[in-house]
Amino acid sequence: MAKSMNEHPRAASVRISCVVPAFNEAQNLPNLIAQLSEQLNALSPQWEIILIDDGSNDATRAVLANYAAMPGLVVLHFSRNFGKEAALSAGLDQAQGEVCFILDADLQHPVAMMPKMLHAWHEGAQMVYLVRENRNDEPFWKRWGSHLLYRLINFGSAVQVPEDAGDFRLLDAKVVAALRALPERNRFMKGLYAWVGFRTLALPYTPDARAYGTTHYSGMRLINLALTGLTAFSNMPLRLWSVFGLILAMLSLGYGGYVSLAYFIEQRPVAGWTTIVAGLMFFGGIQLISIGILGEYLGRVYDEVKQRPRYLVETKIDNSPWSGAPTVPKPSAKADLTPSPHD
Q1: Which domain holds residue 278?
Q2: Total domain count, the chain
Q3: What is the pTM of this model?
Q4: Most exposed residue of 146, 172, 229, 278, measured as fewest CB within 10 angstroms of its CB?
């Protein structure tokens, strides 16, 4: 760790928040809560676990009900599935610690790395994120697509989003406050982590095998997330298509001049309707693709100007040590649809 990170010594005992989004992770939650609470007890006597049930349709709600009186546990049940980025935002909105860990509920993020991450924070780092040492467990198309996405996002950008970095990270309270202040509704959290800056340290890690179930990120979800990240952090598609359009226009002008000269000088006949139809279909396809790219950006703008809340909390269990008396919701058919005060 660089010496510059030692300028602000921190107290040995620290208040820790831990944000865990969960979607259909009923089988993994008991082991996760046991491992996480044991590790947090070893790190500090003051901690809270914020579990966000992102509209699960398995037994997640029933499993979490068994922990309703657990000290330090905060549970947010969304009114429906809003997506992982919204769940992360909800957890950060609730976090009250000086330090906030973020990790997945599938047990692939090893909690054994948390002491090393906290040590880096004690030495001055304000954000510590873990980078996968390899992606050999993923299919080729996913590795190739991820690499291409980050190349496009980072190309010509002042903010570089690190490749192979996931959501397993430690955030200082200042970083959490900065993320809360960002107004985006369509969030690409990996890009926002990079955009806010602060003193950052990367640590290598190898994810554990998934204990139960399979990934909930289908191909379509990954594509939607990629489009959100690309349109939120890069104008490169617009620029590339502008260059492509300019090249096509130059080629068209050159070909038109060549055909005209051949007709007037060599009396060469102009090709018939087949060439014209093929050309019209080609340029029509190019125009539709261009409109589609513009539509993606305009669609993001449309979603933002509606100013809808990023998520809606149906019920909440709050046993945080910093929230006063524990609050366990009574059974009710009516959802509490009050948006977070940070929205």
Answers
A1: 236-305
A2: 2
A3: 0.69
A4: 278
Q: Are residues 219 and 252 in the same domain?
A: no
- Using CA atoms of 297, 298, 301, 307 in order, give the dihedral in degrees to the nearest 10: -130
Residues of the chain with pLDDT under 70: 1-12, 134-147, 149-150, 152-158, 211-239, 241, 256, 259, 263, 266-275, 277-279, 281, 303, 324-343
**Whether 213 and 297 share a structural domain:** no
DSSP lists the bridge partners of residue 18 as 49, 101
Amino acid at 114: M
Tell me: do 174 and 49 sit in the same domain. Answer: yes
Nearest 5°: phi and psi at 131? -115, 130
Amino acid at 143: R
CA dist 186 and 173 (Å) reads 23
Q: What is the pLDDT of residues 258-301, one digit of tens each?
A: 767 776 776 666 666 556 766 676 777 777 777 777 777 777 77
CATH number at residue 140: 3.90.550.10
Q: Do residue 40 and residue 64 come from a single domain? A: yes
SS3 labels along the chain: CCHHHHCCCCCCCCCEEEEEEECCCCCCHHHHHHHHHHHHHHHCCCEEEEEEECCCCCCHHHHHHCCCCCCCEEEEEECCCCCHHHHHHHHHHHCCCCEEEECCCCCCCCHHHHHHHHHHHHCCCCEEEEEECCCCCCCHHHHHHHHHHHHHHHCCCCCCCCCCEEEEEEEEHHHHHHHHHCCCCCCCHHHHHHHHCCCEEEEEECCCCCCCCCCCCCHHHHHHHHHHHHHHHCCHHHHHHHHHHHHHHHHHHHHHHHHHHHHHHHCCCCCCHHHHHHHHHHHHHHHHHHHHHHHHHHHHHHHHHCCCCCCCEEEEEECCCCCCCCECCCCCCCCCCCCCCCC
Please say whether the beta carbons of 49 and 91 come within 8 A: no
